[in-house]
Every structure is written in structure tokens, then in C-alpha cells.
Design brief:
Number of domains of chain A: 3
Oligomer: heterodimer
Strand content of chain A: 5-15%
CATH superfamily of one domain in chain B: ABC transporter type 1, transmembrane domain
CATH class of the largest domain in chain A: Alpha Beta
Number of strands of chain B: 12
CATH architecture of the largest domain in chain A: 3-Layer(aba) Sandwich
Number of strands of chain A: 10
CATH architecture of one domain in chain B: Up-down Bundle
Shape of chain A: elongated
Radius of gyration of chain B: 37 Å
CATH topology of one domain in chain B: ABC transporter transmembrane region fold
CATH class of one domain in chain B: Mainly Alpha
CATH superfamily of the largest domain in chain A: P-loop containing nucleotide triphosphate hydrolases
CATH topology of the largest domain in chain A: Rossmann fold
Structural class of chain B: alpha/beta
Strand order of the largest sheet of chain B: 6-9-10-3-11-12
Chain lengths: 623, 626
């Protein structure tokens, strides 16, 4: 039963594409599992975006270096002041000393002001670059996604693409505006800070930095542990949400089957797990919050012990002794951050990789711009057409050859899975055939520019997708400039008039979550109106009447006959009642063309068509 | 596709879905929130004690450096009349006791106090967050338990997503707030201790420094005010970006077939550019404020040097005390920064608290009988509807004066157009809603005289959408009923033709199914639902037939299974397939909540009424190919 199921499964593109998408491509990468790209290649790929703002970016970086210099000057000045106070001669007047201290205090104030201003300007410059690059990437991603075909969208579900567009672009932004800046600041602070310290006392400087590797090691260790644990709590939160959502979606079954107590017990487990995971995370981050200052205290104690000794031997002044505490505080930050900077880079690199994975996907259908723009009549010739889905052995379409003269109506009829929808997708170049040709007005369709082809060949899909816009925007979706008369006319042809009249705002009624919800039949008829309005030389209707009752269908079909006089129309259906109106009928079975002819002809010969007609008739007969 | 009757009516957004994004905390609500911490009060108290201890120790550390080392040991002028929290004496005492130099004693003291201080901070953070986490765990569980037992009327009115965020995001907001309050305590306690010490050392200098606080406070306030506006705009433009992308990707085929790519890209870019501008102004504001607050405090160094320096010369304070002041300045600014950061968090969380309590206070319940009757061990299965009238809203009846007697073991198909009240009817039978007395009887007992749980055990319900519980196939058939053995489950599955596909699964009956049930097809889910009901052997069966189109072969299997399932059981079927209808003993036609036609397929066809029209238009068998 499993196998038979797989074969007879309703032909849905998603189903086909989903099975052929290699599962390993369903991309979920953890920053620690699979570093797709290296730091260097990440920078190389982002480079063109950053260099558009090179002046701001590098100017900002330079500014940060200058700010560090100002910052490191302050403890130096403070040292001068303290030395003055410490070395004062007993009889010194206050006025004399104030004269010496006042300039120092003023210079401190000036340095602090300069540091603030420079820091603000340069930080803004860099963070701004991050925002601009993120916006550029978003724009390019949107553009790129719109060029992709159905196979791509089967491989990458919408949710996954959304995650890349939202979270991963944010990570790229953080990489540019945060991580790279932090890295530079880190280097600057360390260099500048150490230089100032070395000038004051190189011996003490050497002694003070002794525990630095230890601090960096612990910081790195904990940064990893914390990253893993915070991932876990985020997953735990997602589990919790999923649990509640699925439980509430099935609440009627839960209650009808008296499963409340059991579900509550299961929830309690997930809930407990989430609490425990959180506490584990907090324990780790709190531990590192305690370990860091304790390790730093080793340096402090070195200053106290060794510094006192140096003071007593007269190698350093009291001001230097004091200034070392300030410089230690300054240095502590980069030493500590160096541990988590690795994690930050990993996150940025994996985010960039996920964005570029999409950019690297070459669109399945490529437009080869050519000057072919003839006035089209809608004649279609199919020559020995074969199509096979990737990763499938069997051809979905085999050796199709037929023609639709301009102005005629052709119906395609066949069972579920016979290849009807595949054929239609080939006609609008959503798929490319492996063998054979499709000619439109004697020219192969791939020689037309893609948008010209789709302008002239209009496919109305079986599953109507409507946008959360007004009804009229949905009908005139291809061209918002259409006149209200046109829109109303096509709505009328699609038997939507009475529906529109019943709506509060008529044709301007907003659809979707914030507006009116349409029934399945109404949706289908709106999609139909969207196709009718275009008056394209070739109109293709993919089983667009499945949710429309027979009477309405008859009405629409007769309207179409009048409106599309002289234009080519292709109707796919599985109802003989629909197909019989067409000039000619193509019968498909398992991807092969089994019959072609008018209703009358086909009824005279035994075969699938007559069987279908009879079985459908017999059900009617019962009534 | 066909919307069920109840979901077609508008949801009552006003009652439950309060859109509160900010809310000033009220004492009552805060108090109510605190009651959830009462069971964990020991941990809360312990953590408060720890933070006091840690803060005090944190103040002692700079005192040792400036007053003991610098004043006492280096300058050798400790000016003992000045406050040092007894540190000079303590160091001397240790040196004396251990017979070590004063410097070594100071180092030892510094090391030990550092360990104690950060150890205490660590324990404080862990105990506090444990208390918070457990209190919220309890609150979340209570909320879930409460929601789980709410009657159907609640779920008719409130969208699932909104209930969900109460249990998840709103509670998380409370967590953020409580941890934030914890952080505030951790900042304010040392601030006040330091302030006390500074005042004891030098009132004048401290007073000068204190001026900064209102200035920074006011700045922070206005900054938050300004950014709140811009962040609101950013939230809105980001959600527009996401909605646009989501919709475009979902409808990508239509977009491409309509040649809309360029136009849509332009529309997206317009939002993108707007968002970019907002982001840049937010970045500008945030950066300016942040860099200013972080560094402005260093201005105090100039003031300390100038004013304090003069006092040192006049020997009013010791040089070490002046240095101590430079070490404390950070503590002046941090509480304000943290307060500024937590301000929004607290307001948002209070709105969440209100929503959570609102949900907990929703105490709608099904009416349970005061004097419940017990059902006999085995029911005959007679169901009588007696002039049943029911509406979800007063004055808008969905079922009107419905009377019908169903004999034990009879199979009745209910048909009718969308919105005719079919689903409502079966929901009433399974007691999902309250209705008037003397309306529905089972074996002569009024449904309102039965406890709803007892009733539901005797009625087997198969809904359109089969809900899979995470667990094995066997778990999903048994559903926690200890009376159902694995053999019973296998037997039930075999009887409804479900065994074939179950055995084909990797681990047979032990295969793990997840809630989305991706590993099962529509038809397989349906068969599993049959097995689940059959294993309970209920006397009465209610079935809402799935409308999803299923391939012919599976459909045949399901029809056979359905035939076996209904045998010997009173069955009420909302039918969507012609075959199901034709196999029923009687067909009931509902329209606008009224019973319009009753009879066999042939008689109703002959009558050429509603049933005749419906058959022509609606039943799937007509449309699909066989």
C-alpha cells in the first residue's frame, strides 16, 4: 500500500520537487558544526559591499584608534596630578599647587571630550556601514529569489528563506558593524594601553600581563560553552512554542479523547527541561562573570606586591602605581573579549555562508535576451516533447507531439498524475524540457525574452494564490494601471459580480487576514479573472473549476468563448463536461498522449476518454 | 477548504486579545506576580542576603588598595581618623597574628576578599535566577493547565497563536523583567554602600559628583523617550519587510507568471530604504548616548583632581581617599545606565503580566450536572434529539428546533451545504458546548445529567483533521488507556486495514510519530484515527469525514474500513463522499440549521429536493475521476 500510494499520490509539484531535493541540502548549520566558509573567504565575498562605503568604514576604524589614544592619556594625566600631590613640599601654598593641578584637570576634561566626540563619530560611521550593507544584501537577495524556479523553491522552503533573509543578514550586519569593530578596538586598546604602561614601567608591565593568557583561555572556553547552551535554550523555547501550538491546534481532539491530563504531564516535562536548560546557561555565564574578576585580581595583586617594591626602590612614583590600576582595567576588556570574539566570528561567518549559499544558486531558467518580439497569434506546436524531474527515473512526459492552431480552444484531460500540469509549466518556461521543442508562432519559446513570453502566455494555476491586497489589485495584478471598467468586466466574466456586490467595499475590499476571507470557489474565480483580464494570445487554465459548481462553470466557459473569440485557449480539466466544449481534446495518460481529437471523434472510439465520459455520466445517471 | 460553521463567525478579539504593548506597573499586578515567588521565598531571601554581602565586600577591595596600601604602607600616613572600614586595623591584626609583614597581610586579605566577593555574587545570581525560573515554570504550567481545560467556546473566540504567545513570549518577558530587577538590585546596593562611605570621607566632593546623577537621569529619560518612537517605527518597517518577502515567496509563481518581479522589487526596496533610514537614526542616537554615558564619567576625574587635590594639600583628606574616589566613579553611573536599559523591559513585561493574568482569570467552564447520573456498563446506543435549538451567540440560532431519533446501531449520514450546522450538531453531541436541558438523550438519559468526561469516553469521535500525539504508533492508538494492550491495538488496526501501512513503517507499531505526522499520508492518518477509535470500542461513533482528496485506491481501503468501523455501532457521519452517503441507513439533510429532508438515497433523489441538487453539485466523487 505504501508503494501504490507513492505512485498514485496526487500530482502536486511540491510533492515531486520535494522528493528530488537531496535531503542533505536542507540546510541547517550550526556555527560550531560546519564552518562553510573561512574568515578570509567571508571577507572576500563581503568586500565589494563594504568597499562601497570604504571611506566611512576605514575612517571610522582610524577614529577608533585616535579615541583609544585619548582614552589612554587620561590615566597618564591623573598620574601626573597624583605625583604632584604626593611630592608636594610641606610648606607649599595651595595657590601654587592649584596652578599646577588646574591645567592637568583641564587637559583631562579636554581629552575626555575629544574621546567622546571621536568615538561617537567613528562608531556611527562603522555601524552605518553595517546598516547599508544589510540593506544592499536584502535588496539583492529579493531580486535573486524572484529569478528562481520551482525546483529551487522545493529545495528551500519559504520558512528557511525567511530565516536567511532575517537572521542571517542580521548576522552579516553584526559581523561588519560589531565583530570587526570589536576586533580592531581590541587590538588598538591592547597596543595603546600596553605602550603607555611600558613607558611608565616596563618591568611592572611584564609582570602584570602574566595572567593574560589564562584569562583569554577561560574566556574562550566559557564563550563556547555558553554559546552551545544558549543555542539549547533557544531550541528549548522553540520546542515549548511548538508544543503549545500543536497542542492547541489539536485541542478538540485532545479534549474529545480526554487527553488533557496526559498532555499537561508532557508539557510539564518540556517546561521543566526549559527551566533546567536556562539555569544551566545562567550558571555558566554567572561562573565566568565570577572567574574573570578573580583571575584579574591576580594582576591586581601583582601590582600591589611588585609595584610596592618598585615604589620603595624608587623606580616608580606613586602616580604610576595608581595609574597601573587604571590601565589594568582598560586592558582587561580586550583580554576578556578575545575569548568570545572567536564565537562572534564563527556566527558571522556562518550567517554570511547561509546568505551566499542562496546567491550561489543559479536560476534554473535563464533568460537569453533576444530581439524576438513578433505580434503573436497564439499558435502552439509541440514537437517530440519529453520531461523528467531531476532524481526521477520515469519521464513525466513522453514524446508529445501536437499543435494548437491560432484561435482554437484545446482541452487536456487525464487522470491525476498524468502529466497535465507539467506540460503547462513547460509552456510558460517554469520548467525546461530535456528533449523536444515547444514552438510559439513557429519560434522556439526559449528564443523569446522571458517576460515577453509570460506577457503573451498566461497560465492560471490550479491553486489560486491571492495577495493581501484589494480584490481589484488582485485582478489587475499584472498591471496596476488597468481601468476599473476592465477590472469589472473580467470579474463579471469570471462570475464574480454577485460576490463583489455582497462585499462592504465592493471591488476595493481588502482580502486576507485583515480583510475578507474568500471561499475556495471565490478564490479560484478571482484567479481566473486575473487571467482573463490580460487578453493574452494564449490563455492556459489549469483545472481552474475544481471548486466552482457546474452551473457557474458553464457560465464562465460560455463567457470565455465570446471574450476570447479568435484567441487561443488551453483548458485542463478532469471533467468530460468541461472538455467537451473545446475544439479539440488531448487525452494524457501516464505522460503519454493516448488520444487527440474532437469530443465527437473521441466518443466514437473505445478508450480512456469514453470510459471517463461513461463513468462520470453514470454517477449523474444515478441522480 | 469548507470552513466549519463556528470558525466562520467573527472572533471576539476585544475580550482576550488586548493589544497592550506598554503598561505602567500597578502595585496590585506586581503583588500578584510576587505571589508566584512565595513558594521560592527562601531562595529569594538567600539571594538578597548574598547580594548585600557581595556588595559590601566589593566596596572593601578598593578601600584596601587606597587606604591600606597607598596611605598606610606606601605613604605611611594612614590618617586613621579617616574612614577605612577598619581595614588598616584588620591588616595589622592579621600581620600580627600570622607573623607576616603588613604588605603580605594586605595581599592575603585582598585575595581572600576577592574570592568571597565574587563567590557571593555568583551564588546570588544563581539562586535568584533559580527562584525566578522556577516561579515562572510554575506560572507557565498553571497557565497551560488552565488553558487546556477551557471549553470549546474559548477556542472559538481566540486565535491559537495569541493564546500561544501567552504561554511562551509573555512569560519570557516576565523572565527578562525579573532578571533585570535582579540586576538593578545588584547595581543599587553597592551604589548606596559606596555613597555612604564617600559621604563619610568628604561631603563636599561627593555632593559635586552627585550633581551628575539627575543630569544623566534626565538625559536617559529623554533618550529612551526618543528611541522608543524610532524603535516602534523600526519594528513596523521590519515586519512590513518580512510580510512583503513572505507573501512574495509564497506567491512566487503568480509573481513570475504576471511579470511582476521588477514592480515588487521596487515596492520592497521602498520599505527597505525607509527601514535603512530609521536604522541609521536609531544607530546614531544609540551610539551617541552610549558613548557619552560610558565616557562622560571620566570628567569626574578632572573634578576629583581639582577639588580633591586642594583638600589633600590642606590635609583634609588623605591622598588614598582621593584615589578611592577615582575608583568609585563608575558606580555612580552604572545604576542609571542599567535603569535606562531595564525601563522598557519593565513596562513591556507588565503588559505581558496583564495578559497572562487575563488568561488565568478566564474561568469559563462547561456546565456539569449537580447530581450526575451514571451510564450503564454497555449502552444500547439510542440517540434522541428533542427540539434542539442552539446558537453560539444569543439570538442567532445555528441549530433550530432539531428533532431526530436514531435507533441503536443505525448509521445516519448528515449532509448539507457549508454553514448548515452539521459540525455544530456533532459538537453538541460530544458536549463541547452547553445547551438547554431535555434536548439530547442517550439511552433515555439527558446529556446534561452526565459528567462530560464520562460521556466522552463512550462516544468515539473522528474529526476531519486527525491529531497525532508525539509518540509511537501504539501510543497513538492507546492514548494512555491502560486497558488497551498491544494485541488489542494490532487487532483494531488490522480490522480497519491500518496494519498494512503500519507494518511497512521502519519499526512497525513502535515507530515514533511526531506531531506534524510528516511520515504519514492523509489516508494513513485517517486509518490510524479509525484504529484509535475502534480500540476503545465506543457504542456511539461520530465521524466528520475528511474532505481532502485521496487517491482512489486508498479511498476504497478507507471505505471498507469505515464499513467495518460502523458495524454494530450507532454512527453519525458528516459525509462528504457519495459512497459513504449511499451506504448509510438514513440521510439527514440540514440547511440553515433546520432538518429539511430525511430518508434513503433513492427516496431523496426521487424527491428532487435539496439533496438532489447537492448531489449534483457537491460530492467529490462526481468531480474526481475513478
Amino acid at each position: 500500500m505504501r508503494t501504490s500510494n507513492a505512485q498514485s499520490v496526487a500530482f502536486r509539484e511540491d510533492a515531486n520537487f520535494a522528493t528530488m531535493a537531496p535531503s542533505s541540502q536542507t540546510p541547517h548549520l550550526d556555527a560550531f558544526e560546519r564552518p562553510f566558509m573561512t574568515v578570509r573567504s567571508t571577507i572576500a565575498r563581503l568586500w565589494p559591499y563594504i568597499s562601497q562605503h570604504a571611506f566611512a568604514f576605514w575612517g571610522g576604524m582610524l577614529g577608533l584608534l585616535v579615541a583609544r589614544l585619548f582614552e589612554a592619556t587620561v590615566p597618564f594625566l591623573l598620574k601626573e596630578g597624583i605625583d604632584l600631590l604626593a611630592d608636594r613640599k610641606p610648606g607649599m601654598t595651595q595657590a601654587a599647587l592649584t596652578d599646577e593641578i588646574a591645567p592637568i584637570a583641564l587637559i583631562i576634561a579636554a581629552c575626555v571630550s575629544a574621546q567622546i566626540i571621536v568615538t561617537i563619530v567613528s562608531r556611527i560611521l562603522i555601524r552605518r556601514t553595517g546598516v547599508l550593507v544589510a540593506a544592499d544584501l536584502r535588496h539583492r537577495l529579493y531580486d535573486h529569489l524572484q529569478k528562481q524556479g520551482p525546483i529551487f523553491f522545493a529545495t528551500y522552503p519559504v520558512g528557511d528563506l525567511m530565516a536567511r533573509a532575517i537572521n542571517d543578514i542580521t548576522r552579516v550586519r553584526e559581523l561588519i558593524a560589531g565583530t570587526s569593530r570589536t576586533t580592531m578596538v581590541l587590538l588598538f586598546t591592547a597596543t595603546v594601553g600596553l605602550s603607555f604602561m611600558a613607558v611608565l614601567s616596563w618591568q611592572l608591565t611584564l609582570a602584570v600581563v602574566l595572567p593574560a593568557p589564562l584569562i583569554t583561555y577561560f574566556a574562550h572556553l566559557y564563550a563556547q560553552r555558553i554559546f552551545v547552551k544558549s543555542q539549547r535554550t533557544q531550541e528549548g523555547f522553540a520546542d515549548l512554542s511548538t508544543f503549545v501550538q500543536q497542542n492547541l491546534n489539536g485541542i478538540r481532539t485532545v479534549q474529545a479523547m480526554a487527553q488533557e491530563t496526559r498532555e499537561i504531564a508532557r508539557f510539564a516535562e518540556t517546561n521543566q527541561q526549559f527551566a533546567d536548560d536556562n539555569i544551566a546557561l545562567i550558571k555558566d555565564s554567572s561562573a565566568i562573570g565570577a572567574i574573570m574578576p578573580i583571575l584579574a585580581a591576580i594582576s591586581t595583586m601583582i601590582i600591589i606586591g611588585y609595584g610596592s617594591h618598585l615604589y620603595k626602590t624608587g623606580e616608580i612614583t606613586l602616580g604610576t602605581f595608581t595609574a597601573f590600576f587604571s590601565y589594568l582595567a582598560l586592558l582587561l576588556w580586550p583580554i576578556r573579549e578575545a575569548g568570545s570574539i572567536v564565537t562572534q566570528w564563527q556566527r558571522g561567518v556562518s550567517g554570511t555562508a547561509r546568505v551566499y549559499e542562496i546567491f550561489d544558486q543559479i536560476p534554473e531558467i535563464r533568460d537569453q535576451p533576444s530581439p524576438l518580439h513578433p505580434e503573436l497569434t497564439g499558435r502552439v506546436d509541440i514537437e517530440d516533447l519529453w520531461y523528467r524531474f531531476p532524481n526521477k527515473d520515469k519521464y513525466a512526459l513522453q514524446a508529445l507531439t501536437f499543435s494548437i492552431p491560432a484561435g482554437q480552444t484545446l482541452a487536456i484531460i487525464g487522470r491525476v498524475g498524468s502529466g497535465k500540469s507539467t506540460l503547462l509549466r513547460l509552456l510558460v518556461r517554469m520548467l525546461e524540457p530535456q528533449r523536444g521543442r515547444i514552438l510559439l508562432d513557429q519560434a522556439p519559446i526559449h528564443e523569446y525574452p522571458l517576460n515577453y513570453l509570460r506577457e503573451n502566455v498566461c497560465l492560471v494555476l490550479q491553486d489560486p494564490f491571492l495577495f493581501a491586497d484589494s480584490l481589484s489589485d488582485n485582478i489587475a495584478y499584472d498591471d496596476p494601471g488597468r481601468s476599473p471598467e476592465e477590472i469589472l468586466q473580467s470579474a463579471q466574466a469570471a462570475a464574480l459580480s454577485s460576490t463583489i456586490d455582497a462585499f462592504p467595499d465592493g471591488i476595493e475590499t481588502i482580502l486576507g487576514e485583515r480583510g475578507v476571507t474568500l471561499s475556495g470557489g471565490q478564490k479560484q474565480r478571482t484567479a481566473l479573472a486575473r487571467g482573463i483580464i490580460r487578453m493574452s494570445p494564449l490563455l492556459i487554465l489549469d483545472d481552474c473549476f475544481s471548486a466552482v459548481d457546474t452551473e457557474t462553470e458553464e457560465h464562465i466557459l460560455s463567457e470565455l468563448k465570446v471574450i476570447r473569440q479568435g484567441l487561443t485557449t488551453l483548458i485542463v480539466s478532469n471533467r468530460v463536461a468541461t472538455a467537451r466544449h473545446a475544439d479539440e481534446i488531448l487525452v494524457l495518460d501516464e505522460g503519454k498522449q493516448v488520444a487527440f481529437g474532437s469530443h465527437k471523434d473521441l466518443m466514437t472510439q473505445p478508450g480512456l476518454y469514453r470510459d471517463l465520459a461513461q463513468s462520470q455520466q453514470s454517477i449523474r445517471g444515478k441522480s | 477548504m469548507a470552513p466549519s460553521t463556528h470558525s466562520a463567525k467573527p472572533r471576539d478579539h476585544g475580550v482576550f486579545d488586548a493589544e497592550i504593548s506598554y503598561k505602567a506597573p500597578t502595585l496590585a499586578e506586581f503583588g500578584r506576580l510576587l505571589t508566584w515567588a512565595v513558594p521560592h521565598r527562601r531562595q529569594v531571601l538567600r539571594s538578597l542576603g548574598l547580594v548585600l554581602l557581595a556588595s559590601f565586600l566589593a566596596i572593601l577591595l578598593p578601600v584596601i588598595i587606597s587606604r591600606v596600601i597607598i596611605d598606610g604602607i606606601l605613604i605611611q600616613n594612614p590618617m586613621l581618623h579617616m574612614p577605612d572600614l577598619g581595614m588598616n586595623d584588620l591588616t595589622t591584626w592579621i600581620a600580627h597574628q600570622l607573623n607576616i609583614s603588613v604588605l603580605v597581610a594586605a595581599l592575603l586579605l585582598y585575595g581572600v576578599l576577592t574570592l568571597c566577593c565574587h563567590g557571593a555574587y555568583h551564588l546570588h545570581r544563581v539562586t535568584l535566577s533559580e527562584a525566578v525560573m522556577y516561579a515562572l515554570r510554575d506560572l507557565r504550567l498553571a497557565l497551560f493547565t488552565h488553558i487546556e481545560r477551557l471549553p470549546s467556546t474559548f477556542f472559538d473566540k481566540v486565535a491559537v497563536g495569541r493564546v500561544m504567545t501567552r504561554v511562551t513570549n509573555d512569560i519570557q518577558a516576565l523572565f527578562d523583567m525579573l532578571i533585570g530587577i535582579g540586576m538593578l538590585i545588584g547595581e543599587f546596593v553597592p551604589f548606596f554602600i559606596a555613597l555612604g562611605l564617600m559621604l563619610a570621607i568628604d561631603v563636599e566632593l561627593t555632593a559635586y559628583l552627585l550633581i551628575a546623577i539627575p543630569v544623566f537621569g534626565v538625559m536617559t529619560y529623554f533618550f529612551r523617550l526618543a528611541t522608543r518612537q524610532i524603535y516602534r517605527q523600526i519594528r513596523s518597517s521590519v515586519s512590513q519587510l518580512n510580510q512583503n518577502l513572505q507573501e512574495n515567496l509564497s506567491g512566487i509563481q503568480v509573481v513570475q507568471l504576471s511579470n511582476r518581479e521588477q514592480r515588487n522589487l521596487d515596492a520592497y526596496q521602498a520599505i527597505n530604504v525607509r527601514n535603512q533610514r530609521q536604522e541609521i537614526s536609531a544607530v546614531t542616537m544609540e551610539t551617541s548616548y552610549g558613548a557619552f554615558m560610558d565616557n562622560m564619567v571620566n570628567m569626574a576625574l578632572a573634578a576629583i583632581l581639582w577639588i580633591g587635590g586642594g583638600e589633600v594639600i590642606q590635609a583634609q583628606i588623605s591622598l588614598g581617599s582621593l584615589i578611592l574616589f577615582t575608583q568609585f566613579i563608575d558606580m555612580f553611573i552604572r545604576p542609571i545606565r542599567v535603569l535606562g536599559q531595564q525601563y522598557n523591559v519593565i513596562f513591556r513585561a507588565m503588559a505581558s503580566a496583564e495578559r497572562i493574568f487575563q488568561a488565568l482569570d478566564w474561568d469559563e467552564k462547561l456546565r456539569e450536572p449537580a447530581a450526575p447520573k451514571t451510564l450503564p456498563k454497555r449502552l444500547k446506543g439510542e440517540v434522541v434529539f428533542n427540539r434542539l435549538t442552539f446558537g453560539y451567540e444569543p439570538g442567532q440560532p445555528v441549530i433550530k428546533d432539531f428533532s431526530l431519533t436514531i435507533a441503536p446501531g443505525e448509521k445516519v449520514a448528515i449532509v448539507g451545504p457549508t454553514g448548515s450546522g452539521k459540525s455544530t450538531l456533532i459538537r453538541l453531541l460530544s458536549r463541547s458546548y452547553d445547551f438547554h436541558d431535555n434536548a439530547i438523550f442517550i439511552d433515555g438519559i439527558d446529556l446534561n445529567d452526565l459528567p462530560s468526561a464520562a460521556l466522552r469516553q463512550r462516544i468515539g469521535v473522528v474529526l476531519q483533521d486527525f491529531h497525532i500525539f508525539a509518540g509511537t504508533v501504539f501510543d497513538n492508538i492507546r492514548l494512555g488507556d491502560p486497558n488497551i494492550s498491544i494485541d488489542d491495538a494490532k487487532q483494531a488496526a488490522a480490522w480497519v486495514n491500518a496494519d498494512e501501512f503500519i507494518n511497512a513503517l521502519p519499526q512497525g507499531f513502535d515507530t515514533f510519530l511526531n506531531e506534524r505526522g510528516q511520515n504519514l499520508s492523509q489516508g494513513e492518518r485517517q486509518l490510524l484515527a479509525f484504529a484509535r477509535v475502534l480500540a476503545r470500542d465506543p457504542e456511539i461513533l461520530i465521524l466528520d469525514e475528511a474532505t481532502a482528496s485521496i487517491d482512489t485506491e486508498t479511498e476504497q481501503t478507507i471505505q471498507t474500513a469505515l464499513g467495518r468501523l460502523t458495524r454494530g455501532r450507532t454512527s453519525i457521519l458528516i459525509a462528504h463522499r457519495l459512497q459513504t452517503i449511499q451506504e448509510a441507513d438514513r440521510i439527514v439533510v440540514l440547511k440553515h440549521g433546520e432538518l429539511r429532508e430525511v430518508g434513503s438515497h433513492e427516496t431523496l433523489m426521487a424527491a428532487r429536493g435539496i439533496y438532489h441538487t447537492l448531489t449534483q453539485l457537491q460530492f467529490q466523487d462526481l468531480a474526481s475521476l475513478t
